[in-house]
Amino acid sequence: MIADLFILRQQYVGKVRFSHFDTHVQSSKKVLVATERNVFAALNTRTGELFWRHVDKTGSEGNIDALLQHGQDAVLVVGNGRLLRSWEINVGGLNWEVVLDSGSFQSACLVGQQDMVKHVAVLKKTAISVHYLSNGHQKWIENLPETETVDYQAVYSDGNGEVYVLGVVPHSHIAIVVYSMEDGEIIKQMSVEAPWLYNIQASCVVVGQGMLTCVDSAGVSFYMLDLHLQLQMTQVPLQSLALEVDPGFHPVLLSHQPNPARQPLSEFFLQLGPDHYQLLQLNNGQIAAMRDFKPALLVSFATTGEKTVAAVMSPKNKTVSKCEIERSLPSRPVVNLFSAETGRRLLDTTLIVNMDPNGGKPEKLYVQAFLKKDDSVGYRAMVQTEDHTLTFIQQPGRVMWTREEALSDVVTMEMVDLPLTGTQAELEGEFGKKADGLMSMVMKRLSSQLILLQAWIGHLWKLFYDARKPRSQVKNDVTIENLSRDEFNLQKMMVMVTASGKLFGIDSKTGGILWRHYLHNVPPNAAFKLMVQRTTAHFPHPPQCTLLIKDKDTGLGTLHVFNPIFGKKSHVTPPALPQPILQSLMLPLMDQDYAKVLLLVDDQYKVSAFPSTKNVLQQLQEMAASIFFYLVDSSQGRLSGYRLRTDLSTEQIWEVIIPPEVQKIVSVKGKRPNEHVHSQGRVMGDRSVLYKYLNPNLLAVVTESTDLHQERSFIGILLIDGVTGRIIHEAIQRKARGPVHVVHSENWVVYEYWSTKSRRNEFSVIELYEGMELYNSTVFSSLDRPHAPQVLQQSYIFPSSISTMEATLTEKGITSRHLLIGLPSGGILSLPKMFLDPRRPEIVSEQSREENLIPYAPELLIRTEWFINYNQTVSRVRGIYTAPSGLESTCLVVAYGLDIYQTRVYPSKQFDVLKDDYDYMLISSVLFALFFATMISKRLAEVKLLNRAWR
Amino acid sequence: MLQRERIPLQLIFLQAALVVAWCFTDVETGPGAGVSTQPNGDRFKIEGRAIVPGIKTQDWVSTARVLVEGEEYVGFLRTDGSFAVNDVPSGSYVVEVVTPTYRFEPVRVDITTKGKMRARLVNYIKTSEVIRQPYPLQIRASGPHSYFMKRETWGWTDFLMNPMKDVYSTKKMMLVMMMVLPLLIIVLLPKVVNTNDPEMRKEMEQSMNMLNPNPELPDVSELMTKLFSGSKGSSKAGSSSKGTRPAAKRR
């Protein structure tokens, strides 16, 4: 495999859950992020790139519960308090990892003593343990008293050698246990009446000199308790401070403890409403209001050196000049800094946040404060929005970088051909329109030819102009305006749908995001299906994609119709879907505007069409008898086939029940509709032809046994004709279990499973052949195929587990096929299908050699030369998307998962392209040499003849 | 590697529009949940160290991971290259250190229910074969990954050493043959013929026949000898061609 320049990798981390700026060095460029996708990473604050990234297991076992940072160490609590890890943040290596005793995690904090932070305390439901920061060893562990009644929720320490554990008996009292840092002995234990409290973490913070400050959920009063004295709660009504909580809003407190070995600040924020904050100060046991922020979107504290500032993001700023306000859109919030001690606004600290109008609302604000040379405070802000975007902004509003973390969770994608250029489209449009008179046609032709000429001259001029400039200055930025298809259709628009509901349009050549669109109110557990209804081939009709968004719980769906090139919502109004949707299918039918028809089947088995014009309905009535579809109900193990009636109702024609007590259906794979098969058969060694069984309606159904015992578990594979319900083939793999990955294409099915008997991964391939004769070579009909196909099967050992699998796809299907296999190690293996061929002989014969069959070997090898991504590993590959390009040899590949990786593969090498090192010199010199040689030899021959004549 | 058979074919699919994909039945939730773990069983720790000879650990540990049986259990490397994968129940696992740059051999680790550990070489074919490896694991990188094949450069020696490698080089070779052979024939042959040594000439003609093995095609040597030996050697040429024919037929 040869390195090429068309590879692109983008690495993501996921939605940020915890973030800390590295502050132990003044000039540090790191920000640590721990995300909801179980990734812990360090980002470069200047560029937004990754310094390093650690990807843990998916699911709850890798879930990051807490991130604490001290100096060069970052301590993570992972897997609901199962593991405690410490990372060295400069190189990104692990310092230590310890297993904690079982018990659900509650809270963790760093513990300091005499200004030195040496320990970390982890609070579990029933126990508290303290570990050394240097090596993770446990200093002490103590069981908490009265765990049956008290719900311990928070742990606090302020550097005086004591650890406070705060628990609550809901609606009764607060329980406080004070442990000695030295040996874990209980120093004090007491309970204080608090009938209004049920959740400490939601409504209490520690402020100032150990003052536990709470606010009740109704928002009536503050309650304060000195942790050192612990006498009684003092109640301060909010009204006495002239504060009022928005009706129905649960007030939230925010405090700040810059150094775990010191006491927290005595200033804190109280959020009174969705856009209303109040800065308060605790002074000698008295709360005083300092400053009111309304409207304010987000607030945050930041500390640098000895100074602490409060950053407040507000929708707009009154102090900036008037023209600024006029220019600023409603979606342009502004961040300002305020001194935490005084509440005064700091001068020249305004930062304008340019929000993407197609993005979401800001959700979190992280502020990196630093001291400037004149000792004033400067800052940069990292804003996280609800569409998982991270934006890092410098004063006065320069966006340093943006990370679209929504792309770490791509659910589905499509590649759409780019449109022709304007001039080409003009020319095409000429043919599309109806003829209107000879003269006007001629005029139109002439004018379009003129436009072409003009464009050509413009192009020549640009070439000439660019040639004079140094190469580095010639920019080839792709913007949405100059998008156009290239000669071989290698550049396409990747339309990506992410789980957060944000859609992206990415240029496949540069990897640049050309458009983004955030869909609000997408349910969190939605399933998506993206369909291309109209491609770019039908100028002047714009291309059209339809996204079906379905709530997995209710089954209710919505349609989002948009233009895949510009991302704009289409003016076509999709139909409302009042009924839960069971199935959706694209028909090859088109309406008069060349949009393919989308059929939606609801739970009443009624079918609705989109678009549903008269033309479409008429076509559907004509075609109804030959439209079949199938439904899968995996919970009841039911596969059923339906046929469309002319009145758009349906009729069940077959049903296969797979008993769900014994085995469950895990996946059903059909063939890809855009797949071409070039050769209908295989030429055998004796020159006869073995014809392939190419049934376009074939479904591969994979089942797994419900019994997971390693002796009794099995997986099954059923090949069913989707029209007639006829079972073509059935295979059972005993002592095997999933996850099963399947690829179904042409006349073969490849699947991978785990063999419990031999504890290894195995591949199996099934190929279907009609035999030496073809029943009906022109038309394939599922209804008229009397002979069952011949089935060949072979299995192989694969020395790794796999994450996903897909087959390459080319324009005409001439190129040999490869399987693209995503490995957990991050490689994407391109395995030639030749190795998975059930006709591989055990004993080599003359005929098999003639056929180029590789002798059977039980083990498939993973050769790193076959990795299409080289050392650019891709984490947690979830899917691989393949698309044909205009070149037969070339297949476009996109792997998505945590990362996105885009490349081109050439399964049969680039047989239709001259290599870039093609030796033009040699070929032309040979030609010239030949030419001269003929000239010379002609001359010599003449001389010789003449001489002979003289003799 | 093209498919050799090219039978033109038009599969007009029955318009039975079969459904494209199966989107709304939860594929993702199915298999992942199938891994059975015994919540009460003891959990053990797989320990070891990965070494890349000659490379400082901090240069590669941040990109490395320890994968136990795929991604079922994941461990990370400490700054000194050692690792521990916690929370692994008893069983038999393939432990692999993966980095984008260095290649490590996988090791199979067996853990008994009592927590006794054993490491052995991975053998997927004879799964019960035991070739002991040290435990705690000592995994030494066997060198950098080779992702790239050497580019097929094309030199003059390729003509002789490795003809017909692919379509492209075959074309080139034909071109060069076209150039070199006539030259040889034009320049060398007359000289050989002019020596008037009949033995030599016979030999030469035979070798020319070798180059042109197909008996149906016009015999190059015959043509050549006719051309160059002129009128005086016409009878001799005839006899010589008789001599060569059997040689050709033998093939």
From TrEMBL, chain A:
Domain ER membrane protein complex subunit 1 C-terminal: 745-950
Record's subcellular location: Endoplasmic reticulum membrane
Domain EMC1 first beta-propeller per the UniProt entry, residue ranges: 9-405
Membrane topology: Single-pass type I membrane protein
Listed InterPro entries: Beta-prop_EMC1_1st (IPR058545), EMC1 (IPR026895), EMC1_C (IPR011678), Quinoprotein_ADH-like_sf (IPR011047), WD40/YVTN_repeat-like_dom_sf (IPR015943)
Key words, A-Z: Disulfide bond, Endoplasmic reticulum, Glycoprotein, Membrane, Signal, Transmembrane, Transmembrane helix
GO biological process, one term: protein folding in endoplasmic reticulum
Pfam families membership: Beta-prop_EMC1_N (PF25293), EMC1_C (PF07774)
GO cellular component: EMC complex
UniProt record similarity statement: Belongs to the EMC1 family.
Subunit comment: Component of the ER membrane protein complex (EMC).
Name listed for the protein in its UniProt record: ER membrane protein complex subunit 1
Organism: Amphiprion ocellaris (Clown anemonefish)
Source organism phylogeny: Eukaryota, Metazoa, Chordata, Craniata, Vertebrata
UniProtKB/TrEMBL annotation, chain B:
Membrane is among the record's keywords: yes
Keyword terms: Membrane, Signal, Transmembrane, Transmembrane helix
Composition bias type Low complexity, residue spans: 229-243
Segment forming the signal sequence: 1-23
Topological relation to the membrane, as annotated: Single-pass membrane protein
InterPro entries, sorted: Beta_sandwich_EMC7, Carb-bd-like_fold, EMC7
Domain spans labelled ER membrane protein complex subunit 7 beta-sandwich: 56-164
Protein's cellular compartments: Membrane
Transmembrane segments: 173-193
Chief location of this protein within or outside the cell: membrane
Residues forming coiled coils: none
Molecular function per GO: carbohydrate binding
Any one annotated GO CC term: EMC complex
Renumbered residue ranges of the record's region Disordered: 211-251
Family classification: Belongs to the EMC7 family.
Assembly: Component of the ER membrane protein complex (EMC).
Alphabetical list of PANTHER family matching this protein: ER MEMBRANE PROTEIN COMPLEX SUBUNIT 7 (PTHR13605:SF4)
Protein name, entry field: Endoplasmic reticulum membrane protein complex subunit 7
UniProt source species: Amphiprion ocellaris
Name of the gene encoding the protein in the UniProt record: EMC7
